[in-house]
Amino acid sequence: MQQKIVGFHLDEESHWVADLECGHKQHVRHDPPWQERPWVVTAEGRASRLGVELNCVRCDEMGEAVARAAIQECKSTLQAAYQDAGLAGLCAEGRFEAAVSALDGMKLVDILRKTRVRP
After folding, report:
1. Could you tell me how far CA 20 lies from the centroid of its own chain?
2. pLDDT tens figures, 70-82
3. Are 65 and 113 within 8 A, CB to CB?
């Protein structure tokens, strides 16, 4: 997920770290020949990168965890509602409609609490 750089700081090993708008951090080392970021070694260079977007791997991981949890919660809700509707004597079409309607009662905040994903 793309996030804007809002600042920089040095870590405990004196490596530059970009502060991202999402609250996460990302190292931006100049370590030739592996990483070429000469702009990071000067204040002017770092200032020129404020507002530039970096891919935040941590946000990507959090998004995937929430998506997987949401899919699993939807499956569980559908299966339970379909089974309950069958026990209530509904036909296959009625069971399907009841299962789909059960999704309307789901709340994203409950899914987020269950995933325990933290920024």
Report:
1. 14
2. 898 899 999 999 9
3. no
